[in-house]
Amino acid sequence: MVATGALGAVGAAAVAWPFINNLNPAADTLALSTVEVNVTPIAVGQAVTVKWRGKPVFIRHRTEAEIKEAEAVPMSQLPDPETDNKRVTDTAKKVRPEWLIMIGVCTHLGCVPLGNKPGDPKGEYGGWFCPCHGSSYDTSGRIRKGPAPTNLVIPDYLFTSDSLVRIG
Amino acid sequence: MASSHGTPPVFNNKVIAWVDHRLPIFSYIEKEYHTFPTPRNFNYFWNFGAIATVMLVLMIATGIVLATNYTPHVLMAFDAVERIDRDVPQGWLIRDLHMNGASFFFIAVYIHIFRGMYYGSYKAPRELLWMLGVVIFLLMMATAFMGYVLPWGQMSFWGATVITNLFSAIPVVGESIVTWLWGGFAVDNPTLNRFFALHYLLPFVIVAVVALHVVALHVHGSNNPTGIDVKGPQDTVPFHPYYTMKDGFGVMVFLIIFAAFVFFAPDYLGHPDNYIPADPLVTPAHIVPEWYFLPFYAILRAIPDKLGGVLAMFGAIAVLFILPWLDTSRVRSCTFRPIYKWFMMLLVVDVIVLGICGSKPAEGFWVPLSQLATLYYFAHFLVLLPILGKIERPLPLPPSIADSVLKKKAV
Hints:
The structure holds two protein chains of two kinds. Chain A is of the alpha+beta class. Chain A has helices spanning about 1-20, 25-30, 65-70, 85, and strands spanning about 35-40, 45-50, 55-60, 100-105, 125-130, 135-140, 145, 155-160, 165. A three-stranded antiparallel beta sheet of chain A has the order 1-9-8, with no helix packed on it. In chain A, strands 2-3-4 form a three-stranded antiparallel beta sheet, with no helix packed on it. The relative contact order of chain A is 0.17. Helices cover about 65% and strands about 0% of the residues of chain B. In chain B, about 35% of the residues are buried.
């Protein structure tokens, strides 16, 4: 009886799995995994938004002041402690503090934070501000205030030359 | 053909008799909707079950017609809806009926829920009846949410993004669940496709649960404004013609108000932003859900922690499931509960305050107000209800329904 029941349960799970897994991303969706961007036109203090995997990616050319501000923050003030240095390192371990590249999706509930365009509100910490539920990010894209639990996510990226960056 | 309760009906029409002998649908209708003994003292709050049923049928009928002109693809969905509005014969009417129908379905159901709470309709022996109602409410919320995504406007897209992201608050597996819900790395074509499939399916699931709700209702019959049990035939009237007429009248009044919105203010309850095609790179400055979700949205935002906010929001509905056991009072109707009556009205005010908070940006004075209102919401169910039942002294109950009706007439 037990053996029959167990076998039945295994069979039911084996049949259910294709139905469940069917809803996961398809091969063609997974294939859209990299995007290449030329960063030369982005002046100091400017930022652009590019689309990667259906999501916005922020590329900000930071000013000296912004970099200094981000580096000076003590870890004890951060809800999700992370050094600025770590957030501007590409997959080849090269540090470029002037380029901050992040997925532009608020870690709370997925809105796109404001702060990339010149007229946008940048929040209390001079970085980004999410209008949906009021999260504020600093000049390193780290969460400082509001309901978002973690810093803005840094995708895998690699500077293939000084002007070309590959995201993904 | 008329029969008193308990004896099977005799049909004079031979065809009906023949069918009924083999499949007793006519006996069933006769028993459950004609002679069915129903408390004689219903007020107009008892119309809203019938009204909600009418709205469900209307939503399914208009929905099927709309689906014949709709295309669930990110590049075509927005235009398909515009085409329904502009080019399809009477498409504007069907769409406005469907769009406003959702709101009015929720209006009917919210009044129906209030009725159940005020008159204690959830108490023994109607606990399962009440819980099935909460299941219907949850299914309605899921259906309405997915339906709102289909026009693929800005509010559709960002509403879908925010609500699906709620599941990312689940520790460890949250992100995988969200990817699974989306079928990708963001809300995109696979998401729209599956939402359309489910939006078409769930209303029929609702019909099935409504059927169970009605079966459970007909076991012990309806509650009534006094909350006391039916004691004999003097307390009841047959369902038809008394309540078919009264429900019919209520439905007509409700539909007149509904029609006023459909014909004169079809977009009043919607958001202008949803007439902007979805743009995955720009979030509208102020995103809000449809009005019927606002109180729950306010609860979500009141808690300054992602997981906590999500738990509180789902908890606000989960607490309704256990309502029959939280209420310790043996008296059903608020009419005879001099203290609880006022707290019940305060809960209504509280939910309205939450709704207003949910519609405002999450800043300034609205944040502490929504926190206070959230606290009261949970305190009502988890603290006030259990305690009040013990300390409140109810007013004397009338000896019977008939007695209460006749006494009122004498005054």
